[in-house]
C-alpha cells in the first residue's frame, strides 16, 4: 500500500493529519505532564480507552466513508452489557448464551438500521437517532421490568472471562486491547487490500454511479450497519464481563467520541475519503488527550477544550492534505 | 446503409399528466454520431434517460438490433452495452484513476479469501486505456480523479465505457462548462469512439460542437422530433435557427402546434430523407 515513500507522498494519504495530530498531542503531554503517561501504567490507561472506543470507531468510520452515519452505537453499548448481565447474571444462564444473545441483538439492530436506511429516503443520522432512543427505552424499560433495578451484577469465570473481559500482561491492560488490534488488522485487509474496500469508497463518492457500476450498494450498507452495532454490543458485553456488572445508562459518550476519532483520523464527513489506519491514529490521539490530562497539572475540566481545539485543527489540516492529494500530479521533468 | 443498433419507435413519455415526449422515432447506427439538439426543456435528457434505463417509455418501443428490449434499470441497460456518461458522473473525485476505472470489477491477485486488489494492474490498464484516447498527460494511475480537468474526467469516463465493451455511448452535454481546448479534446475522443465503431448520441447546445462530430442530427422541439437530417443537408445558420429559435424556429413551432391541434395531439411526421 505504501505507494510513495517521499514526504509529499505520505502527506497526501488520508492518515497524514491524524499522524501529525498524534505527534502534536504526544509532544504536548510530554512537555506538560512528563513522560509518565508513556510508562506502563499510564499507557494502559489510554490504551484501554482507545481499545473500547476503537472497536466502535472503525466501523462507524467505514459507514462515514460510505456516506452514512450511525449514532445508535451509543445505546448498543449498554444494550450489549445489559443483555449479557440479565441473561447470565440475573437468570444465571450460561455466559456463552448471554454473549451470543448480546451479539445477536447487535446484528438485529444493525439489520433494522440498514434496512430502514436503504428502504426510506431518510438520512441515516435521523434513522439511527430514532433507534438510539428506541434501544435506550428498551434497555431501561426491560431491565427495570425484569430486575427491578437499573444495575445488574454478574460473575464470570473461566475461558469466557479470559477471552472477553480480563486484565492481561500484569493486570492493567484489558483484553479488549487485543481484540482492538486484531479487528484493526482485519479491517485494514478488508478496506485497503481486498476489492470490497473499493466499493465502500465508491459508495461514499457517488452512490448512484456506484450502483450503476454493479456494486451491491444495499447489501454493503446493511453489512456496515450490522458491523457497527454489533461492535458496540461487543464492547458493552466485554465491559460487563470485565467489571462484573452492567448499567442501563452510559454509552452516549461513545457517539461523539467515535465521531471525533473518525474525523481526527482523516475521514471526510461527507464520505468517499479516509483510511482505517487514520481512524486508528485518531482514536489513540483522542484517548491520550482524554487520559493524558490526569498526568498534567491542569484541571481535567480543560480536556474538552483541548479536544475541541484538536478536532478543529485536525479538520483544517485534513482539508489541506486532501487538497494536496487532489492537485497532485507527477512531475513532468522526465520528458 | 447498415442496420441500426438502437431505435426508438413511436415512443411517448409522460410523467403523470405532463406529456414530455411525443412519437419519437430515432435510429442509431454503429460508427455514427447522432447529435440530439434542442432548446432547454425540449426533452433531450428524457430521451437519453429512456435509453439508459432510468425511465421506461409510456408507449412505443425501444429496439436493439431490431429486437424489442426493455431496460429494467441503468445497470440492465449497461449490460446491454449502453454506456451513459453524465457531466462528471461515473467518476469518483476522491478515488484514484485506477480504482475508479475498475469500480465494481476490480482486478485481484492472490488466493482464496486473501485475494487482494491488484493496484499495479488496475493502474496500468486504466492509464493505457486513457492514453489510447490521446490523453497522454495522464501517466500515474494513483492520481485522484478530482485532480483531473473536466475534459480529462470526461475522457476517462468515455475510455472506461469503451474498455468495458460499450456499443452505444450516450454523452449528455459533455462539452458544457468546458473551455475551448478541453472541449476540442472531448470532441476528438468522440471521433475516436466513432472510429472504433461505437454508436454515439451526443447532446449539446453548441452548433460548432455538433457540426464537428455529428453525422446525423435530430432536433427536438417541445418533445417532438422537429427535424431529422444528415451532415451537410443543412447549413450552420439553419441549424442554429432550429436550435435557438430564429424565424424558421418560430414557423416550425406554429406548424407543429397547428398540426397537433388538428391531429389529436400527434406531431407531424418527419420528412423522409
Ligand atoms: N421526472 C419528471 N417529472 C415531470 N416532468 C419532467 C420530469 N423529467 C423531465 N420533465 C420535464 O420534461 C421536459 C424535458 O426535460 P429534459 O430534462 O428532457 O429537457 P432537456 O432537453 O434535457 O433540457 P436541457 O437542455 O435544459 O438539459 C421539461 O419540461 C421537464 O420539466
Ligand atoms: Mg438535459
List keywords for this structure.
A: 335 residues; mainly alpha; ABC transporter involved in vitamin B12 uptake, BtuC; two-stranded antiparallel ribbon; 4 strands; 3% strand; B: 273 residues; alpha/beta; Rossmann fold; 3 domains; 6-stranded mixed sheet; 4-stranded antiparallel sheet; 9 helices; 12 strands; ABC_transp_permease (chain A)
What order do the helices and strands come in, and which of them pair?
The complex is a heterodimer of chains A (335) and B (273).
Chain A: H1 7-11, H2 16-33, H3 40-65, H4 73-90, H5 95-119, H6 124-147, E1 151-153, H7 159-164, E2 167-168, E3 173-174, H8 175-193, H9 196-205, H10 207-212, H11 217-243, E4 245-247, H12 253-264, H13 276-292, H14 303-327
Antiparallel strand pairs in A: 1-4, 2-3
Helix pairs in contact in A: 2-13, 2-14, 3-8, 3-9, 3-11, 3-12, 3-13, 4-5, 4-6, 4-11, 5-6, 5-11, 8-9, 12-13
Chain B: E1 6-15, E2 18-28, E3 33-38, H1 44-51, E4 59-64, E5 67-69, H2 74-79, E6 82-85, H3 97-101, E7 108-109, E8 116-117, H4 119-132, H5 150-163, E9 168-172, H6 180-195, E10 199-203, H7 207-213, E11 216-221, E12 224-230, H8 236-244, H9 247-262
Parallel strand pairs in B: 3-10, 3-11, 6-9, 9-10
Antiparallel strand pairs in B: 1-2, 1-4, 4-5, 7-8, 11-12
Helix pairs in contact in B: 4-5, 5-6, 8-9
Amino acid at each position: 500500500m505504501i505507494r510513495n515513500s517521499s514526504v509529499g507522498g505520505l502527506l497526501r494519504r488520508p492518515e497524514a493529519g491524524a499522524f501529525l495530530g498524534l505527534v502534536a498531542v504526544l509532544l504536548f503531554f510530554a512537555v506538560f505532564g512528563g513522560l509518565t503517561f508513556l510508562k506502563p501504567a499510564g499507557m494502559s490507561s489510554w490504551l484501554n480507552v482507545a481499545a473500547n472506543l476503537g472497536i466502535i470507531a472503525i466501523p462507524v468510520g467505514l459507514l462515514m466513508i460510505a456516506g452514512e452515519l450511525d449514532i445508535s452505537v451509543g445505546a448498543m453499548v449498554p444494550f450489549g452489557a445489559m443483555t449479557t448481565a440479565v441473561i447470565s447474571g440475573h437468570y444465571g444462564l450460561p455466559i456463552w448464551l448471554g454473549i451470543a444473545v448480546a451479539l445477536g441483538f447487535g446484528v438485529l439492530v444493525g439489520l433494522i438500521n440498514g434496512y430502514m436506511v436503504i428502504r426510506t429516503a431518510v438520512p441515516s443520522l435521523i434513522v439511527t437517532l430514532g433507534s438510539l432512543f428506541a434501544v435506550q427505552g428498551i434497555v431501561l424499560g426491560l431491565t427495570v421490568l425484569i430486575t427491578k433495578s437499573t444495575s445488574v451484577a454478574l460473575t464470570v469465570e473461566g475461558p469466557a472471562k479470559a477471552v472477553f473481559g480480563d486484565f492481561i500482561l500484569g493486570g492493567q491492560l484489558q483484553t479488549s486491547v487485543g481484540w482492538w488490534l486484531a479487528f484493526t488488522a482485519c479491517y485494514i485487509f478488508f478496506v485497503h487490500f481486498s476489492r470490497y474496500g473499493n466499493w465502500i469508497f465508491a459508495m461514499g463518492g457517488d452512490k448512484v454511479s456506484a450502483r450503476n457500476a454493479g456494486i451491491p450498494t444495499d447489501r454493503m450498507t446493511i453489512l456496515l450497519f450490522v458491523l457497527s452495532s454489533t461492535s458496540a454490543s461487543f464492547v458493552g458485553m466485554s465491559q460487563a464481563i470485565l467489571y462484573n456488572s452492567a448499567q442501563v445508562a452510559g454509552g452516549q459518550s461513545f457517539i461523539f467520541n467515535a465521531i471525533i476519532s473518525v474525523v481526527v483520523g482523516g475521514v471526510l464527513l461527507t464520505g468517499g475519503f479516509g483510511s482505517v489506519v487514520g481512524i486508528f491514529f485518531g482514536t489513540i490521539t483522542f484517548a491520550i488527550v482524554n487520559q493524558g490530562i490526569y498526568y498534567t497539572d491542569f484541571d481535567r475540566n480543560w480536556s474538552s477544550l483541548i479536544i475541541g481545539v484538536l478536532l478543529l485543527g485536525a479538520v483544517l489540516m485534513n482539508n489541506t492534505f486532501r487538497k494536496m492529494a487532489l492537485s497532485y500530479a507527477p512531475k513532468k521533468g522526465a520528458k | 446503409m447498415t442496420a441500426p443498433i438502437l431505435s426508438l419507435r413511436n415512443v411517448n413519455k409522460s410523467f403523470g399528466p405532463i406529456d414530455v415526449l411525443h412519437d419519437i422515432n430515432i435510429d442509431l447506427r454503429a460508427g455514427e454520431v447522432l447529435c440530439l439538439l434542442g432548446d432547454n426543456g425540449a426533452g433531450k435528457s428524457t430521451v437519453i434517460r429512456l435509453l439508459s434505463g432510468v425511465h421506461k417509455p409510456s408507449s412505443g418501443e425501444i429496439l436493439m438490433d431490431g429486437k424489442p428490449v426493455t431496460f429494467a434499470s441503468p445497470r440492465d441497460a449497461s449490460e446491454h452495452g449502453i454506456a451513459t456518461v453524465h457531466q462528471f458522473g461515473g467518476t469518483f473525485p476522491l478515488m484514484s484513476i485506477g480504482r475508479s476505472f475498475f469500480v465494481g470489477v476490480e482486478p485481484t491477485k492472490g488466493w482464496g479469501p486473501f485475494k487482494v486488489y491488484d493496484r499495479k494492474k488496475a493502474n496500468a490498464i486504466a492509464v493505457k486505456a486513457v492514453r489510447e484516447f490521446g490523453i497522454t498527460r495522464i501517466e500515474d494511475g494513483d492520481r485522484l480523479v478530482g485532480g483531473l480537468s473536466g475534459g480529462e474526467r470526461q475522457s476517462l469516463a468515455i475510455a472506461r465505457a469503451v474498455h468495458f465493451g460499450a456499443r452505444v455511448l450516450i454523452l449528455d452535454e459533455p462539452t458544457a462548462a468546458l473551455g475551448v481546448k478541453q472541449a476540442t479534446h472531448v470532441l476528438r475522443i468522440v471521433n475516436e469512439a466513432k472510429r472504433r465503431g461505437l454508436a454515439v448520441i451526443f447532446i449539446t447546445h453548441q452548433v460548432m460542437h455538433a457540426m464537428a462530430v455529428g453525422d446525423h442530427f435530430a432536433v427536438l422541439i417541445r418533445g417532438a422530433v422537429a427535424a431529422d437530417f444528415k451532415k451537410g443537408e443543412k447549413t450552420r445558420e439553419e441549424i442554429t435557427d432550429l436550435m435557438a429559435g430564429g424565424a424558421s424556429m418560430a414557423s416550425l413551432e406554429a406548424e407543429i402546434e397547428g398540426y397537433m391541434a388538428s391531429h389529436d395531439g400527434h406531431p407531424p411526421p418527419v420528412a423522409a430523407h
